[in-house]
Design goal:
Number of strands: 0
Number of helices: 13
Structural class: mainly alpha
Number of domains: 2
Helix content: over 70%
Radius of gyration: 24 Å
Distance between the termini: 29 Å
Mean pLDDT: 86
Strand content: under 5%
């Protein structure tokens, strides 16, 4: 069967399953079986098609619904962190990777633009902040800005501020994701210029060991918040094989899941900035340990674990699919 005919024949059924709010176990199982059968057919004849990825995603969500219905209410939050969020992140790995590349590119642009023209740095960061930092450097306390305020108050204030920023990046996605991308690129330029401000004074290594104590998690969160906004925007622009508004609702839901998922990361990043970064003269090994632990957590939970979970799910669906195809005796 040609792919177009396969889609035409089944798209109404898929749309009905996607938009339904089935909670009955038998109905969920029936929907899951239908999708797994169609997924098996699509994987056989259209292995690289978008419809195959779509069916895999829909089957994944119903599988999670079935799993959740087997658990008590107290386990639902654990299910979100263990299954729902990682699978949602895996679904948008390409989008997240592209945004990371864009951020890195504009970080480099901000750094080398400041190198070629020092006034550029002042335009991006602000005269007052640059002058204050240069005064701190001259006084032998280059990162003194992180030593101001009461640690607890700083922690809460930074968390609230970063959460508002993340929500703003997500909300900007309503305009097709374009303002979100622009904000992320501007943020990349600012971080690059900020880095150069210290590197130009021979403090590049200290900058990494100090700022990235909290910056590793904070920058990652901003990139994921940007991804949530872009997902919101592109779900309306590119609905694929389903109704545009259904696609938009799904994109909004997936983006919100990612946004909720980064809240604990923002809490920890703000804690590091409020309580730990101010002690930047600590032994470099301690700073490096925090930085590496943050980096390894990000690599594992947001990249490796979602891939492993998806593969585990695919193996299970393949087994269930083969079981369905065994003739009854």
């Amino acid at each position: 069967m040609r792919e177009a005919l396969f889609i035409k024949k089944n798209k109404d059924k898929w749309a009905e399953i996607q938009q339904s709010q089935a909670t009955d176990a038998d109905e969920l199982a029936s929907d899951f079986t239908e999708l797994v059968n169609d997924l098996a057919y699509a994987k056989t004849f259209y292995p690289t098609s978008k419809v195959t990825r779509f069916l895999n995603g829909q089957a994944s969500k119903i599988y999670l619904s079935i799993y959740q219905n087997r658990k008590e209410e107290a386990n639902r939050l654990a299910t979100f962190w263990k299954y729902d969020l990682p699978l949602t992140i895996r679904k948008y790995h390409t989008t997240i990777l592209l945004l990371f590349i864009f951020f890195s590119l504009f970080f480099i642009i901000g750094f080398f633009s400041s190198w070629n023209n020092p006034t550029y740095m002042r335009q991006i960061i602000g005269e007052g902040y640059v002058n204050m930092t240069e005064e701190n450097i001259a006084n032998g306390n280059p990162f003194g800005v992180y030593q101001t305020g009461t640690p607890f108050i700083v922690w809460i204030g930074i968390f609230i501020n970063n959460t508002v920023v993340a929500l703003t990046y997500y909300a900007k996605g309503i305009l097709f994701g374009i303002p979100t991308i622009i904000s992320l690129l501007r943020f990349g330029v600012e971080v690059g210029a900020f880095d150069y401000m210290f590197a130009s004074k021979g403090l590049g290594e200290m900058f990494v060991l100090t700022v990235f104590i909290h910056g590793t998690l904070e920058i990652t969160s901003i990139i994921f918040a940007s991804a949530a906004g872009v997902i919101l925007g592109k779900s309306f622009l590119f609905p694929g094989t389903i109704d545009r508004w259904a696609s938009f609702r799904q994109g909004a839901k997936d983006g919100l899941k990612i946004l909720v998922g980064i809240i604990p990361v923002l809490v920890i990043a703000a804690f590091f900035e409020g309580f730990v970064t101010r002690h930047y003269r600590m032994h470099w090994g301690f700073s490096l340990s925090i930085l590496l632990a943050s980096f390894l957590f990000i690599i594992w939970y947001f990249i490796i674990y979602p891939i492993q979970l998806q593969k585990k799910f695919l193996v299970q669906t393949n087994v269930e699919d083969k079981h369905e195809m065994v003739p009854a005796k």
